[in-house]
Amino acid sequence: MGGNGVGHHSAMPFEYFTTSLPRRTALLGALGALLSPTVPAWATAKGHHATKPLATTAWPHALAVPGGIARIALGAATTRPPAFTGEVPLLVLGDAKGWTALVGIPLSTAPGEARIRVQDAGGAQRDIAYTVAPKHYVEQRLTVAPRTVDLSAQDQARYEREHTHIANVMATFSEPLPPANALRMTAPVAGRRSSSFGLRRIFNGQPRNPHSGMDIAAGMGTPVHAPLPGTVIDTGDYFFNGNTVWLDHGGGLISMVCHLSSIAAKVGDVVPTGAVLGAVGATGRATGPHLHWGVVLNRTMVDPALFLAD
Ligand SMILES: [Zn+2]
Fold first, then answer.
1. CA of 194 to the centre of ligand 1 (A)
2. Which of 47, 86, 150, 283 holds its CA 20 to 30 A away from the CA of 240?
3. Which residue segments constitute the domains of the chain, with CATH numbers given?
C-alpha cells in the first residue's frame, strides 16, 4: 500500500478500517465549574522519589488527551466508590487511603473540560471535572480502488451486525477487577510498532474511523500472546478485523488482537500473560500480515502504548 507518511512507519501494513463504538456523549463540554486537579496517587504519596512514579501505579501512563487515559483521584473512602462517565462504569482502583479512577477518553472527545460522576458512600453523587488536552493526530489521505472502500449491500449488512455484537463485547465489565500494581502489559508480539494510533484516514475523500489501535509488524504465523491475564470473552472472524480474540482483564479493561491467521483460544479460557491466543495473519481488511492490537477501557479504545514499559 503506497500509504503516505506515518513517520518512518509508512511501510507498515495496516487494515482499511477499524471498529469503533457509536459516539458516546457522556463526556461533557463547556459548562464552567471548578477544575479538580488530576493528581495521580503517586504524586501525593509521601516518602517516595518525586521524579519517578511508584511502579505500583505507573501503568497505564496518564495522558488526558483524546484516545488517552486520565487518572482521577477520588479521595479516601472505606469502600470503593463507583464512578461513571454517563452510564458507563469506570475502573476504580486503590484502597481506603485513596482511590483513583482510570478513565479512557474517546478519540472523538473535544478538548476542554470533561467530567466523571462519583457515588459516595450513602449514595450522594458528585461530579469531578478534568481537562482533556488537545492532541494532534496525523491525517492520511489514500486513493484506493473504489470497491475496497464502498461496501456492497451484503457486506454493509454484515458489518452492521458485527458492529452491534462488538459493541456488546466492549461493554463487558467484570469482576474481579485487575490488580492496580499489575496493569503493565506485554506487547502481544515482538516487532516494530506503528505510532499510528489515532491516525485519521481518508479513503478516496471519504473519512473513516480513526485508527484505534497499535499495528505491530510481524511475520505470518508468529504466535500472538496475551498482554495481561484475562478471560477470553469472544472470538470470531469479522469483516474488518478478521480473526479476532477478545480478552477481558476485568473492570472494563479489555484487549483485542486482530487479523489472525489462526485462533488458538476459545471463549471461557482463563489465560495468563503470555498465553498463545493465535497467530499473526492478514485476515479481514488488512493489506499484509501484521498484528492489530486494541485496548478498551470503559468501552473506549485507548492507546495501547500507555500500557507498555517502552
Ligand atoms: Zn491497525
1. 9
2. 86
3. 7-42+136-307 (2.70.70.10), 69-132 (2.60.40.1590)
**Residue showing cell 500500500:** 1
Cβ(245)–Cβ(257) below 8 Å: yes
pTM: 0.84
Sheet containing 91-95: which strands, arranged edge to edge? 69-75, 98-104, 91-95
Residue pLDDT, tens place only, 227-285: 999 999 999 999 999 999 999 999 999 999 999 999 999 999 999 999 999 999 999 98
Task: Please work out, in degrees rounded to the nearest 5, the angle formed at the alpha carbon of residue 281 by the alpha carbons of 280 and 285.
Answer: 135
**211 CA → ligand 1 middle, Å:** 6
The whole-angstrom separation of Cα 254 and Cα 151 is 28
Question: From CA 197, how far away is CA 217, in angstroms rounded?
Answer: 14
CA 157 to chain centre: 26
Ligand 1 centre from 17 Cα, in Å?
8
CA distance 266 to 236: 10
Place of cell 499495528: 215
Gap between the Cα atoms of 290 and 259, Å rounded:
7
Return the minimum-mean-pLDDT range out of 23-32, 36-45, 230-239: 23-32
Ligand 1: centre distance to CA 87 (Å): 28
pLDDT tens digits for 83-124?
999 999 999 999 999 999 999 999 999 999 999 999 998 889
Q: How far is the CA of 213 from the centre of ligand 1 (A)?
A: 5
Count the neighbouring beta carbons within 10 Å of the beta carbon of residue 262. Answer: 13
The pLDDT tens digits for 129-180 are: 999 999 999 998 988 888 777 888 999 999 999 999 999 999 999 999 999 9
84 CA from centroid of ligand 1 (Å): 28
Closest CA to 283 of 255, 261, 265, 256: 261
